[in-house]
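INFO  loader      accepted 1 record
INFO  loader      residues=391
INFO  predictor   begin
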Amino acid sequence: MLLRHTAGQDQQNGSSRWPAGLRRPRIRLLAAMAGACLACSLLAGAIGGYVAVRAADSPTNASFTLGQVPPIPQNRPAGSVAAVATRDTPAVVMIKVDGSEGTGSGFVIQGGYIVTDNHVITLDGLASNTSLRVYFSDGRSARAVLVGRDPFSDIAVIKAQGVTGLPALTLGNSASVAVGDPVVAIGSPLGLADTVTSGIVSAVQRPVQPGGAAAMTPQVFFDAIQTDAPINPGNSGGPLVNASGQVIGVDAAIDTLGGNPITGTQGGNIGLGFAIPIDQAQRVIVQLVRTGHATHPVIGAMLNGSYPGTGAQISQHGVRGQPPVLPGGPAAQAGLRPGDVITRFGNQPVSTADTLQDAIMSHAPGANVRVGFIEQGQSRQAMIRLGAAGS
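INFO  predictor   done
INFO  writer      dumping tokens
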């Protein structure tokens, strides 16, 4: 400010002593510099004190630690998802069909056999005689061959070649499953091997008819175990296990809200997954291992799929020369006639022809089942002994 003020005064006074006046500005500049140094010293002290004060209130702390890390637990509680996953995952495999054309899951049972879904190994019914390769959780893989398959129950059995000593899962009892029971699904959704998800049993005896992609694929019927454990494409064939790690179902289907019309992506899990009860699957598995084929239960009657009322109506007219009720068959022997409407099968109500088919498939051939039906407006009951038909 002194220089500016002095220079301003000289200019205002019209002074011509600028060359001689260099001394005075120089002296004043030096004085200003000395003053500035003094001011800087004072300022530095003030800043130092400010920094010292700020250091005490700083958000950082050089001595901060998170404390001691707890030891890694050696064992998880029995029945926990982690314990079930550790025990069961080594017996679950990823299955690749025709190279990378399709991917599904399966699980090893006694004898080294691998259980999966028929729609997995047939690419949803579009192919037969497919090449199969299984991938184990320990990194090994092996070619697999078909032992037998049953399109009506959607169960297939395969076996890995050149591999022995495989861990096997224990089969449980699906009849004892109750809504609310905890369950774990293990498989390869979207090709992500060894994926474990958990949830509960949301419903039992849920009628499900997952249609095949090919027209020649027979309609599959089963009373499913419904679960909210996340299941996605690729989980098919994998096990649904209980808290003891026992298989209670074979994952087979999901319900979705559809694909994304913009991205073209396939619809995924929305909390509605369905598994074939192991009691139903087990009968088929044993038959497939023993003979390569399986039988399924029938009542020996044609059903009217377009019946508008509640229940499953026996057709009143035959098809292609076949009578609506097979003479001497299970329905005929139980006293059922064309036009009768079946409203109950065992302990399950029947609302449509499909729900009756589901209920029939939940029983074994040769089983005796009580049926409720309406004959000419009158409620009736009868015992029916289920017949058998080959796959």
